[in-house]
Amino acid sequence: MRAGRGTADGKRATTGFPHLRQDFTASLVVFLVALPLCVGVAVASGVPAELGLVTGIVGGIVTGLMPGSSLQVSGPAAGLTVLVLGAVGQFGLPALGVIVLATGLLQLGMGALNLGRWFRAISLSVVEGMLAGIGLVIIAGQLYAAAGTTAPESGVDKILGMPEALVDALGSAATLTSIAVGAGTVAVVVLWQRMPRRARAVPGALAAVLLATAASAVFSLPVATVEVQGLLGVIQPPGADAFAELANPAFIGTVLAFTLIASAESLFSAAAVDRLHDGPRTRYDRELIAQGAGNTVCGVLGALPMTAVIVRSSANVRAGARTKASRVLHGVWLLVFAALLPSALALIPIPALAGILVHAGWKLIPFRRVAALWRGNRGEALILVVTAVSIVAVNMFEGVLIGLVLSVVKTAWDASHVKLEVVDKGAGPIQAHLSGNATFLRLPKILDTLEALPQDRPIELDLSGLHHLDHACRSALESWAERHTTAGVDPVRLLAA
């Protein structure tokens, strides 16, 4: 009887939080995954490590409490590292808060106007090309960080400068040691999946950082470690001078790039997370509002921008999370760590964090997707590759714009399929039948075929099979009909579309 009463009491006690045990366990897993990534993204972005934790805390607690995607986890993302590094270098750290604040406000506005769903209309090849380009730039930049040297500013210079950096590294024992720590970190992350299941309860990235930290401390390795300023010391709301940058067109372009990329990455991540579980589906406009609220708070605090992060989100789902409580609790654990153990960050070797980011950058490059697209749709594969190369060669914003333009051009080209069939029975008029969609994109090919028809025979051009005939095409066909007719021959007949 007592056991029965205990069971009933237990059920009543958990009625308000029926999945608390699963969510609590999942939150610890996500915290352990997020901790090294928050710190690594911040260091790679050229800002104090604590700012990465601030963004992770806001992403967990503020964004986590809001509706949208119940199991998706937000925080600082490797995908924005390149943008943040460039923005901080160009406008300074105080201006970062204004950029992130403006990004958040734009996201709030777009969500309120129900524009969130439209981000799903962005070509997947452009998004994957964007992530691939980011991944390449991250890898190139973090290889320099692993060697303890300063990376060149542009993506092309980073890649072209690698041979010289490698030669210089071979002549320095300290540089080789730093590279070894970074390479060892990558090896641990990759090989950790082959460890026994109990060991894999600790995420590979955290295990790699802990091992690198322990090795550096025990053997007194000559490697750089994270600089610590304290949580309150790094929180600096943007001042009036930073807001003055809003008059700078380049600054506005950077804000738009942050907004486009952060929103697209978050909503594409939401679609991917929805495929991992059977729970409630993402409400895209509300998710965009949640991301906007989080970025607004991050901007006020002068922290890094946030996006939904697929690595943390998938870890959350795999760990058995059932409600948004798991992501909120993960933010609480980050806050507790930042408040109680900030000095622990000073022990972490920077080459280890570089190794974590190299691995994260590698995961952003969709090798299998490119191969599959090349076999089935080379046009989409070309868009993906050109977008990635453009980001490396030019910059993030212009690279994405190039990809979007290519995607629109390809779509227009695909939509303008037209077939021109010429029937010549030897006697009577020559019959030309146009079917499909006749647009200016296909006009040169149509005119080449029509102008090759003999001018001393009557011709009937049947347009009734066309689904669409744009103004440029109609005008060109009428002009051809007038020019093609010669004296003594019946004029070209156009049968109406």
As a whole number of angstroms, the C-alpha radius of gyration is 29 Å
Question: What's the shape?
Answer: elongated
DSSP strand tally: 6
Which regions contain 5 or more consecutive residues with pLDDT less than 50?
Answer: 1-15
Average pLDDT score: 86
Determine the strand fraction and express it as a percent band.
5-15%
Terminal residue distance: 85 Å
How many domains make up the coordinates? 2
Subcellular location: Membrane
Domain SLC26A/SulP transporter: 20-387
Transmembrane segments: 24-44, 51-71, 77-106, 118-145, 165-192, 204-226, 246-268, 288-311, 331-360, 381-409
Pfam family, one: Sulfate_transp
Map the helices and strands.
Layout: H1 2-13, H2 20-44, H3 49-65, E1 74-75, H4 81-91, H5 93-112, H6 124-146, H7 155-160, H8 162-170, H9 173-191, H10 204-218, H11 231-234, H12 240-243, H13 249-274, H14 284-301, E2 307-308, H15 310-318, H16 325-340, H17 350-364, H18 367-376, H19 378-393, H20 396-415, E3 418-423, E4 430-438, H21 443-451, E5 459-469, H22 471-484, E6 493-495
Parallel strand pairs: 4-5, 5-6
Antiparallel strand pairs: 1-2, 3-4
Protein name: Sulfate permease, MFS superfamily
Transmembrane segments: 24-44, 51-71, 77-106, 118-145, 165-192, 204-226, 246-268, 288-311, 331-360, 381-409
Domain SLC26A/SulP transporter: 20-387
